[in-house]
Specification:
It is built from nine helices and ten strands. The protein is of the alpha/beta class and 254 residues long. It folds into two domains: 10-96, 60s Ribosomal Protein L30, Chain: A, CATH 3.30.1330.30; 107-247, Alpha/beta knot. Strands 7-6-5-9-8-10 form a six-stranded parallel sheet. The protein has a four-stranded mixed sheet with strand order 1-4-2-3. α7 links the parallel β6 and β7 (159-160). α6 runs parallel beside α7 and α6 (115-127) runs parallel beside α9. The radius of gyration is 20 Å and the shape is elongated.
Length: 254
């Protein structure tokens, strides 16, 4: 099959439109890049409609076949147009965005705008057996850049629209909160808990902090103003997972 050479090709243009949040939400689809991400999506049963790649791509045709998708060879120029990275390795696939899922485990509640931080926090949640809720004002969790930073973790967690009303809320703040390694002193193991992680530059909104059940801060040198949002959230998530492992299962029916 002759590769597509024009970025104005109908299928290429339609796929490239998914770089825009508005289009992703309208169509319920997104782009992902790379064989490992595509393999994770296929293994999770995510519908794949089309896979683009260079004619000599060693993975694309087989992954397209495994996902029941069309394989479409393209030139390097077209692949760069489709991919979210500057130097794409391919393949690039169009996948269906899964519907939001109700959480069944403690949560990482992501309120960050940076795609790298958001993807890292989703990856952290998968590592520590947490689910994820993404604030409406945060970066789109299904953007190609967040998917890339998540390294396949999107397909191993429940991505919820919001935190259930009955769940406890733990707000992460730079200073003045309790140390997360003391969770056992103040968290109720009969409840499920959500860790709120704010944007890198501005932190959590004041109303979220005010309505939280508890605030936590990671002890650090006073000369350091704050930690990276993903680092801070990951450290607190690790401590929540350690506490939950010692405290036992959450209350049934929550």
């Amino acid at each position: 099959m002759e590769p597509i050479r024009s970025v104005r090709n109908t299928r290429v243009a339609a796929a490239a439109g998914l770089h825009r949040t508005r289009m992703r939400r309208r169509r319920g689809e997104t782009l992902l890049e790379g064989p490992h991400l595509l393999e994770a999506a296929v293994a999770a049963g995510i519908p794949v409609s089309v896979v683009f790649g260079l004619p000599d791509d060693p993975h694309g045709p087989d992954l397209a076949a495994a996902g029941g998708a069309d394989w479409v060879p393209v030139t390097e120029t077209v692949l760069r147009h489709l991919a979210p990275t500057e130097h794409p390795r391919g393949p690039v696939a169009v996948i269906r965005i899964p519907r939001p899922s109700p959480p069944s485990r403690d949560l990482l509640a992501v309120a960050v705008r940076d795609p790298g931080n958001a993807g890292t926090l989703i990856r952290t949640a998968a590592a520590f057996e947490l689910d994820v809720a993404v604030d409406a004002g945060a970066v789109d969790p299904w953007s190609p850049k967040v998917l890339r930073a998540g390294a396949g973790a999107h397909f191993r967690v429940a991505l919820a629209r919001s935190i259930p009303a009955s769940w406890g809320r733990i707000a992460t703040v730079p200073r003045g909160g309790r140390a997360p390694d003391t969770f056992g002193e103040f968290l109720d193991p009969r409840r499920r808990w959500a860790i709120l992680v704010g944007d890198e530059a501005h932190g959590l909104a004041s109303e979220l902090v005010a309505t939280a059940d508890v605030t936590v801060s990671i002890p650090m040198e006073r000369s350091v103003e704050s930690l990276n949002a993903a680092v801070a959230g990951s450290l607190v998530a690790y401590e929540l997972r350690r506490w939950r492992s010692r405290a036992g299962n959450p209350a049934a029916g929550d």
